[in-house]
Design brief:
- There is one protein chain.
- The protein contains five helices and two strands.
- Strands 1-2 form a two-stranded parallel ribbon.
- The protein starts with 6 loop residues before the first helix and ends in a 10-residue tail after the last helix.
- The protein is mainly alpha-helical.
Length: about 110
């Protein structure tokens, strides 16, 4: 019913498995509906069951979702990607600091 960032979702995606997740917390940030997995409404067991049945009935599509999910996981949620994102945030702060030193004056004071 609430999931800030589901490790199990990312782990399944990393293994190339198709995933079904609820539209709660960080899950919609990980799963692109009908591209890397399926999203269902929270508290909707029938919708969840229907999504699982759909994946079971369509093995080719299931494989495509799994492969796309793995790629998304590697591109968006890898350690290297995270490090690069953090480094880019620092670079952006430094650019602002160099252009407008007064903007960050007193930060943390």
């Amino acid at each position: 019913h609430a999931e800030p960032l589901g490790n199990a979702t990312l782990e399944a995606m990393a293994f190339g498995l198709p995933v079904v997740g609820s539209r709660v917390g960080g899950i919609p940030e990980m799963i692109v509906h009908e591209a890397t997995g399926l999203l269902v409404a929270p508290h909707a067991p029938r919708e969840l069951a229907a999504a699982i049945e759909q994946l079971l009935a369509e093995p080719v599509w299931r494989g495509k979702l799994g492969a796309a999910g793995r790629k998304r996981c590697e591109d968006q949620f890898s350690l290297e990607g995270h490090v690069e994102e953090v480094v880019e945030h620092y670079r952006a702060v430094l650019r602002v600091q160099r252009k407008q030193p007064h903007k960050l004056a007193g930060v943390g004071a």
